């Protein structure tokens, strides 16, 4: 298997890595949720999105939608005074990969919890 990055890994390698950029995006607290809401609920206006996601401030919703639009994962359509957001094909193609990570997390959560407990109890040799 060939290495993902040349070793040693430099700061420049990390900063220019395309995967790092995508991981930062999907690692944002609200990104995946907004994409899933738009996929499952269809195109939505800002106010509908605001009502759909509890605990998400309007400022953060605006910032998240702008970032997703800038990366081509969400489209923004203005019709008169109405603005509608929709997941793009690019955004929809990313969701199954993220959902696979979520499924992995659910499947392996008990093993990870057990490992953490063992680590914090001091039963693992360091």
Automatic annotation (TrEMBL):
Annotated ranges, domain HTH hxlR-type: 17-113
Alphabetized Gene3D superfamilies for the sequence: Winged helix-like DNA-binding domain superfamily/Winged helix DNA-binding domain
Top-level taxon of origin: Bacteria
Pfam families: HxlR
Record keywords, A-Z: DNA-binding, Transcription, Transcription regulation
Protein name in the entry: DNA-binding transcriptional regulator, HxlR family
Taxon lineage: Bacteria, Bacillati, Actinomycetota, Actinomycetes, Micromonosporales
GO molecular function, one term: DNA binding
PANTHER family: TRANSCRIPTIONAL REGULATOR, MARR FAMILY, TRANSCRIPTIONAL REGULATORY PROTEIN
PROSITE patterns: HTH_HXLR (PS51118)
